[in-house]
TrEMBL record:
Organism: Paxillus involutus ATCC 200175
Signal peptide, first to last residue: 1-22
GO BP field: fucose metabolic process; glycoside catabolic process
Listed name of the protein: alpha-L-fucosidase
Function recorded in the entry: Alpha-L-fucosidase is responsible for hydrolyzing the alpha-1,6-linked fucose joined to the reducing-end N-acetylglucosamine of the carbohydrate moieties of glycoproteins.
Domain Glycoside hydrolase family 29 N-terminal stretches: 341-691
Keywords assigned by UniProt, alphabetized: Glycosidase, Hydrolase, Signal
Matching InterPro entries: FUC_metazoa-typ, GH, Glyco_hydro_29, Glyco_hydro_29_N
Keyword Acetylation: no
């Protein structure tokens, strides 16, 4: 893969003398009426009317906002009443005509999918007045998903099922999404995706409201950019600045001029602009910076402020390279940095992923436990689910049952494998060295999977643990302490399953594939198998699950609580203590979407989003194509190689995600050579190209070209193009599909490689170096690449 980095510190600094300080353009939004297209009733007062999902399910009307609804500065027309008729549009290829052809900067959609999974990818068609058509990919999330919590912007605590006959107490969601619209021509209409489904298990896109942000089209050739503060959010993140906690204010700055003039230098920011936040009780200690902002684009950055009981509204102030105030934007509510978290969903829902997690991008997942002893699973089954598949079904139709009978005989039960979980080759330092060399910035170790066997000290909640059973070691403690001492650059996380397949005390809460109750012997159903190490307790959640989670947070100092399966839980109480403890001890932590409540980020499994998702997310998958736990039946050639790892990482990061890649060690604690070698191959690439991965941001206008051959990422000073294919005839041709790349005359393009000097910073003499390049009138970029590079 080739990585091209374009520093946006240009040799010619534009001078803005004579610009008078003024208010920046307010970020506009205009609603688009859906009244002629409403064809579905999603909400009901009592569940007896409406049918959102073709199965008689509906949202609860009383929890939904009514009429004009403003979210993140955009106003939408929602129904003035819910439950009395059609309130949304099932996308079936309808065409939304704009009153007038308009240059559009951004499209805003309030929506939900009605499927049972995470969601799907759909495509809108944008129809322009020059007769061109642009496809707009759109990632749709479904209104609820067990056990992964799709966290929306409008939430109801439950929904009606079967026309009101029952209630589903899973939180149900409606989402808001804003997407960039190519503005090289005026938009005439929008064709909705075709998601009509005749099956009983639909996966349709429901649209509740649509708004747009028009571009600002000047009467004459512009001499300055038209800047607008898209958002200014006082976040829960903070950084240490001279011994004090400086609050992060997340700013998005837009250039509202149309993309048709994106190559105009006078219409762009081309030098160092600084952005401050001022107001009563506020002091900007680290301003945000923008070096390049072309028409049609947006820049996201953090401003660090000391917030001494600030009140009222803040003002965002933008200064040019000479320190002149270009403009201001007022009216942004000051929200104090939270110092105390309570077990209140509305409070905890404001928590965010820390800056370190946002910048890390790449982590290592570790699945290790009793299941590492049999280390087997058929294709398309996780090896760590060995115990479940041994018993379900407990007959010859289960490949795992057949394998167990042939390999171990009928008298060996799952818990007999505990004695063979030796960790005889385990070396915490060696693992951490590998993760570090692989380029990972954090790790997450499985502390307890669904079989209930833990790798940490469970104290007197249960002795089904490596501390009290073979091999009598606290692996979590050893790994955490070694990482803290030897690899402080690696952040430390813990996976914890909230449920257990066969714990008798879980039967009170059991469901589906997590029923609780002792397993019947797989070869003699009249016998119950042991649950080795179990102690007498009163309640699984109060006496085992909740204490375990608190111990991982308070005793082991995890920075990531990576839950799984959810079910009944005390996550609200846990999260408050987790966040408070971290803050009191000077670090920041995060929690995923499988703990049952208030997630910081989403976790698609063995899947990625097809387009940009602005909410933080992290895909997770094994190096093994079918398993997280080590599967001895997998051929080494099937593991993800270095190229696949890097391409997946870059693709995920370009869409605003992190990549958590799993390794499955053997029962002896060894990460086998094929896995290690492929990790190191990826790490080698990251050593010279990592500056176009770590601490990058997605490019607002598009994450990739239409062919999927390139991915685009940004930093404040650079624009990165990652090419997935080798140059053809000595050149790389980048066509972003009608979107003009933010590259202008005077920019230098550098190929990152093992011997390259890296991205240059303020050295303007470097502008004369780099590869030859040219851009045609359609915005297609051609880069000449010498054969020796």
């Amino acid at each position: 893969m080739k990585v091209f980095c374009i520093p946006v510190l240009c040799g010619v600094l534009l001078s803005y003398f004579g610009i008078v300080s003024s208010s920046l353009v307010p970020f506009p939004s205009t609603t688009i009426s859906l009244s002629d297209f409403l064809n579905n009733q999603a909400a009901s007062i009592d569940g007896t009317t409406g049918n959102f999902d073709k199965n008689g399910s509906t949202y609860v009307a009383e929890y939904l906002p009514r009429g004009p609804w403003t979210f993140n500065g955009t106003t939408y027309d929602l129904p003035t009443s819910w439950g009395s008729g059609n309130d949304n549009v099932v996308a079936e290829g309808q065409v939304l005509e704009l009153p007038n052809a308009t240059y559009v900067h951004e499209l805003h959609i309030v929506y939900a999918g009605d499927g049972g999974g995470l969601g799907g990818s759909h495509t809108f068609n944008l129809n322009y007045d020059d007769n061109s058509v642009k496809e707009l990919p759109f990632t749709c999330k479904n209104w609820w998903k067990w056990s992964i919590l799709n966290w929306g912007d409008i939430r109801t605590p439950y929904h009606f099922e079967k026309y009101g006959a029952s209630r589903n107490w899973n939180s149900s969601q409606i989402f808001q999404m804003s997407v960039s619209i190519p503005s090289r021509a005026a938009l005439k209409s929008i064709t909705l995706p075709q998601t009509a489904d005749t099956s009983d298990t639909p996966d349709r896109l429901h649209i509740f409201a649509v708004s747009m942000t028009p571009s600002v089209v000047p009467a004459l050739a512009p001499t300055t950019p038209v800047l607008s503060v898209r958002s200014a959010q006082f976040s829960t993140r903070w950084e240490n600045v001279n011994g004090r906690r400086a609050q992060v204010v997340a700013i998005t700055l837009a250039n509202l001029l149309p993309g048709s003039i994106a190559t105009s230098r006078s219409a762009s920011i081309n030098s160092k602009y600084e952005v401050e936040v001022i107001g009563e009780g506020l002091t900007t200690v680290t301003p945000g910076v923008v070096y390049r902002l072309v028409p049609g684009d947006q820049a996201r950055f953090d401003v660090l402020v000391l917030n001494d009981n600030g009140t009222g509204n803040a003002t965002v102030r933008v200064k040019d390279a000479q320190g002149n105030v270009v403009g201001t934007s007022e009216g942004w509510p000051i929200i104090p940095l939270r110092e105390n978290w309570t077990a209140d969903e509305s409070v905890l829902a404001t928590h965010e992923t820390p800056t370190w997690w946002n910048q890390a991008k790449y982590g290592i997942f570790i699945h290790w436990g009793i299941f590492s002893v049999p280390a087997w699973g058929p294709p398309d089954e996780y090896a760590e689910w060995y115990d479940w598949h041994l018993h379900n079904p407990a007959n010859s139709s289960s490949e795992t049952w057949e394998h167990h009978l042939d390999t171990y005989g009928p008298n060996v039960v799952y818990d007999d494998f505990i004695a063979n979980f030796t960790a005889s080759k385990w070396n915490a330092s060696a693992w951490l060295d590998l993760f570090d060399e692989a380029g990972a910035k954090y790790f997450v170790i499985v502390t307890k999977h669904h079989d209930g066997y833990s790798l940490f000290d469970t104290k007197n909640t249960t002795h089904r643990s490596s501390v009290y059973l073979h091999p009598y070691r606290d692996f979590v403690k050893e790994l955490m302490e070694t990482a803290k001492a030897e690899k402080p650059n690696l952040h430390r996380g813990t996976y914890y399953s909230l449920t257990e397949w066969f714990n008798p005390y879980y039967s009170k809460y059991g469901f589906d594939r997590w029923p609780g109750g002792l397993a019947h012997n797989a070869f003699n159903a009249s016998e119950l198998e042991p649950y080795t190490g179990m102690l007498n307790i009163t309640d699984y959640v109060e006496d085992l699950q909740y204490p375990h989670m608190l111990s991982l947070a308070l005793d082991y100092g995890t920075e990531i609580m990576w839950c799984d399966i959810a079910g009944t839980n005390k996550t609200l109480e846990f999260a408050a203590q987790f966040y408070n403890n971290a803050a009191q001890n000077g670090y920041q932590v995060t929690m995923n979407d499988r703990c049952g409540a208030v997630p910081d980020y989403d976790t698609p499994e063995y899947a990625t989003f097809g387009s940009l998702a602005t909410r933080r997310w992290e895909t997770n998958e094994g190096m093994d194509p079918d398993s997280y736990g080590f599967n001895a039946a997998t051929n080494a050639s099937e593991y993800k190689n270095g190229t696949t790892i890097i391409q997946t990482l870059v693709d995920v990061v370009s869409k605003n995600g992190n990549y958590l890649l799993d390794v499955g060690p053997t029962a002896e604690g060894e990460i086998i050579a094929p896995m290690a070698d492929n990790l190191l191959a990826a790490g080698k690439w990251l050593k010279y190209a990592g500056e176009c991965v770590y601490a990058t941001d997605y490019w607002y206008q598009t994450s990739q070209d239409p062919t999927g051959s390139f991915r685009f990422l940004t930093t404040p000073q650079t624009f990165c193009i990652v090419a997935f294919n080798k140059p053809t005839n000595g050149s790389v041709v980048v066509n972003a599909g009608g979107v003009v790349l933010p590259i202008q005359q005077g920019d230098a393009i550098r190929l990152l490689g093992p011997n390259s000097p890296g991205v240059f910073s303020d050295d303007t003499t470097a502008q004369t170096s780099g590869l030859e390049w040219r851009m045609d009138e359609d915005g297609v970029l051609t880069i000449d690449v010498p054969e020796d590079q």
